[in-house]
Predict the 3D structure of the following.
Amino acid sequence: HRCFRPSGLISTREPREPREHPHRQHMLTPLLPRLGPAMRSSPLRAGPVTLAAPELLLLADGGGALSSTADELAGSLFGASLFPWLAMLYWLKHPTVGAPPGVKFGLTFLLAFVFGSIPAAIGAGALFGVSLADADWLHGSAESLLAITNCVVVFGFRDAIDVEEKGVRAPADEASLRAAATALGSLSALSAVAVFASGGASVHTPWLGGIGNAPAGLWPAEPSNALSMPTWFIHTSSLVEWLVAMGLAWRYADAVAQPRWRGVTWGMLRLVS
């Protein structure tokens, strides 16, 4: 017999077994091998689960597989972005561009961040099985190279503006910026090497000893990817430095009467994210 419900006509007979379509594959089916361990302990295992709705499996895994796929995609895009950056550096150093020497060196020094992040990311995965963002001491040391880059770019634009607007000699020429960046970059690398050489490195070993961290026990429990205060400081400072550099690039366009330098500001805007 049949009965009526507000949602429509529903049969009381036992539902038929779902038909299998071997030739059809759900878009999320490739993620299923990663979700096997999660499903064995998941409450969803109590009922029948078919490939027709593998989104349920992602819920059981807490989005871990999707996050892993996003990390892999981000790594691929990170490597691919090197080629347009090299093309930009070639344009920047062309004699007709007239880029400030400090700016040219600063944006070139970003390659130190790129090539420093690669072994740091490999180490985070090989030693702890996590992404670079979750290994505090590796994360902080790599991120500090980006902060150094941004500082050099800021000083390069500032000194060039002073020369154009005030006619004063740049207090920080390219040679001094090179020396300072090289010294600070070496200290950043040594900070990671020292933690590794200590023999007691763990995934949450705080960078620089966790200077300024909140007292232990202030919160009942911290998330697994909690970062130390020095690492958070480096994150914030690198963002602020880049925003300042964007404003100085706009001012430099006015100082040298070359509106095309404003396009550099617009190009830098997308990197804020």
Notes: The first helix runs from residue 32 to 40.
